[in-house]
């Protein structure tokens, strides 16, 4: 018997037992009508070839294993970053169920959002009634301070007009006239989740800033952008600003709602940028975005309100953090304090201590456009060599910027930049031009299996490792975190290659 | 299936009725009226649970339901491993459902199997404006070139496809003829129906219309013992731990629908002598069709927990000769010692623990006796997308006074959990973390919380182990900071 009550086997070991293995073989042979094993092996080999890579690269219609999601996911993430704000997604209900699941699987936290539950009749007659009922129910039941309305592609295709619908809802008393209902159209057939983040953020800022008379002040707004590591990163950002004595409003701060304690109660809302601070944000001296490609519209809005603006690309490591801090310093007139300089020195100390294990190592990086830039810049500082940099939601403009960065470094000479490609393309790249390591999201695990390139999970989504997002990868501290994660992968790999006693263990060094 | 005697208990009717009143008070009047029809307390001897079901969800209340696409691609078609399933429309639907159902399979992914992959047409604005048919046509050709070992292709429509007037049927027909493989158009746009349920039905119909009787299946010799497992999606390997038992009793499982399934298995199912249906909700349609058209009878069975497994094995055997009947007895006897020992180990740790279930279309009833085999009591049960016949069948499982909630809202769920304080909640990923923060142990019962299998005797051991670890983990006792004034601990003892 394969199972035993003394040592209970789950799927990981149960199906390795001979009874199951024999059953699989029987099923295959008698009922599956499989291709002959030689044919499977032949195709598998062909898929690793340059010939396949060229065919794979020439496809025009098919997308396979993309590393991007759709707009309303970004909108839900964005609205979660404001005090007492509830996401309301106008369209089919299944979408909202998917967004909630997707975010929960990454953060291991609840993710609350409601839908207007549109069905076939709404497709014909429009979703106005769904909006009217939905806003009333959500308002009364979940008692939000504001409701942020986004859309699914269904509502977009039939052309529902959010502005008119919300006005009507207020007229009819679904929510009080003075209740805040910021909104954004977030069609999933344009851009990706980072676009949705920007659209919703712009919608929220517009809602609270429009009509306000700006009284220029000295504070800063900082837009962190869509970020799977928002919990650790935003806390680190606040700490850095605290050390500098800078008064900054984080425009979209889901670091608490995606990291709630277990204390016997569940509260749907936690933390988030206070609504008063959002309103006050119009008076800020400047708005800084930490992720350019998450904030184009929002920055344009800030600029048009009379603020200075600056955009970064997921600043981590040494130079990118330097630039960010110097910009903050320039905007506020506050010097960069000794403490941060000390931390900068400590990061460089760690880099020099460990350089031998990273220098010259080749890397694949995939993820959102800003993430790719931030990580690549840090790799170049470490003397590592990025070879494939791929962003499924990266634009041509992104690729141009990315190329300029890699060509400026002697360590970036081999880098190939892939905007708009997917992870099935990347599979071909890694079969034909493998790298030592890969940095990306959990989706990379299939590439790790198929191409043998070890994966370091540092991007959204991470479903199969827990809690890393609670630690920062922004800034100097983030650089240190990332360095340690890279080194652990390198050292574990070295040990795994040298741990057979009497065969290859002469290099099984105690000290490395 | 008929009721089965396990453990004796009654639930607190009055308390549960009061809870229903409490939650209804929080809704606007119109909504309260509607929700009242979906909440009930069971009455012994009644013909069903006393709730309305399969009705549109109410906007703004945070229903837990998914959509027709989820029911079709996620549940029925997605697990067919040697076909490529296109998520046709924008990128999101395919992305969020990618690899999330844990339909295990054996095969070389990307080469001869495609289960844990995401094929999408990634609609852009131009596809909405000019239509996606041309793109679909090209995609099918590209799939043929890049994945030559695929046995066929399904086209899973997302919302826009049905709104912009695309004719995927025409494209599928034309390209299917050109490549000489089934290309199956499935109209499972997310706005159709009220939940995943219509997606199951549409997916079933697509099997009927585009797979059955379309090609001559490869040579196949029937035997008197041929059965099909229907409505087992092989989550964490459930189908395999079920298949083993059927094979051991002497039956020949000619197809699994659709966990670890292949196109051939879909095609050959009508040749079975008996269709064995586990998830009635998602596949009763095709089972009825096979009965009507091919004369294949079908039988519902339940492989959760030793009581129901034994009962099911005997019921299945009734349809065959003495050899199979003896086989069933032999299998029951073979596994008795192991499952008795599992119960002996875990029952003392779990007896009397109260459980609330909220799952899809099968498990809120099918798992009840498995919990009771471990001495646990079901205080509440509800379905995301059940129909009336599901709530009728549920009466064979639940005790008097059980709280019933159809298409529950997040608000109701939180309130019921907070007031009942069960020892365990079994539901999905969206419910997991809020429940645990309340100090209430939780197991995901869609994905088996990344464990499994739970079906069959091999699976029962895993199930018992998992429920024990969820409930008896020491961390539940740490919630209250010691410097806080004494008050009852939030967690179960």
TrEMBL record, chain A:
PANTHER family for the chain: LIGHT-INDEPENDENT PROTOCHLOROPHYLLIDE REDUCTASE SUBUNIT B
GO CC annotations on file: molybdenum-iron nitrogenase complex
Stored Pfam families: DUF3364, Oxidored_nitro
Source organism (scientific name): Candidatus Defluviicoccus seviourii
Gene: nifK
Molecular function in Gene Ontology: ATP binding; iron-sulfur cluster binding; metal ion binding; nitrogenase activity
Cofactor: [8Fe-7S] cluster
Coiled-coil features, chain-numbered ranges: none
Cofactor: binding details: Binds 1 [8Fe-7S] cluster per heterodimer.
Known EC number: 1.18.6.1
Self-association state and partner proteins as the record states: Tetramer of two alpha and two beta chains. Forms complex with the iron protein (nitrogenase component 2).
Homology family: Belongs to the NifD/NifK/NifE/NifN family.
Protein name: Nitrogenase molybdenum-iron protein beta chain
Every Nitrogenase molybdenum-iron protein beta chain N-terminal domain range: 1-56
Nitrogenase/oxidoreductase component domain segment(s): 70-488
Enzyme class, UniProt record, top EC level: oxidoreductase
InterPro entries: ChlB/BchB/BchZ, Nase/OxRdtase_comp1, Nase_comp1_CS, Nase_Mo-Fe_CF_bsu, Nase_Mo-Fe_CF_bsu_N
Keyword annotations: ATP-binding, Iron, Iron-sulfur, Metal-binding, Nitrogen fixation, Nucleotide-binding, Oxidoreductase
Reaction catalysis annotation: N2 + 8 reduced [2Fe-2S]-[ferredoxin] + 16 ATP + 16 H2O = H2 + 8 oxidized [2Fe-2S]-[ferredoxin] + 2 NH4(+) + 16 ADP + 16 phosphate + 6 H(+)
Function: This molybdenum-iron protein is part of the nitrogenase complex that catalyzes the key enzymatic reactions in nitrogen fixation.
From TrEMBL, chain B:
SUPFAM superfamilies per UniProt: Helical backbone' metal receptor
Gene3D superfamilies, A to Z: Nitrogenase molybdenum iron protein domain
GO MF, any single term: nitrogenase activity
Record keyword ATP-binding present: yes
UniProt superkingdom: Bacteria
Ranges where the Nitrogenase/oxidoreductase component domain occurs: 67-471
Enzymatic reactions: N2 + 8 reduced [2Fe-2S]-[ferredoxin] + 16 ATP + 16 H2O = H2 + 8 oxidized [2Fe-2S]-[ferredoxin] + 2 NH4(+) + 16 ADP + 16 phosphate + 6 H(+)
UniProtKB keywords: ATP-binding, Iron, Iron-sulfur, Metal-binding, Molybdenum, Nitrogen fixation, Nucleotide-binding, Oxidoreductase
Coiled-coil features, chain-numbered ranges: none
Keyword Plastid: no
One Gene Ontology CC term in the entry: molybdenum-iron nitrogenase complex
InterPro entries: Nase/OxRdtase_comp1, Nase_comp1_asu, Nase_comp1_CS, Nase_Mo-Fe_asu
Catalytic activity, EC: 1.18.6.1
Family, per entry: Belongs to the NifD/NifK/NifE/NifN family.
Role according to the record: This molybdenum-iron protein is part of the nitrogenase complex that catalyzes the key enzymatic reactions in nitrogen fixation.
Subunit structure: Tetramer of two alpha and two beta chains. Forms complex with the iron protein (nitrogenase component 2).
Protein name: Nitrogenase protein alpha chain
Source species: Candidatus Defluviicoccus seviourii
Originating gene: nifD
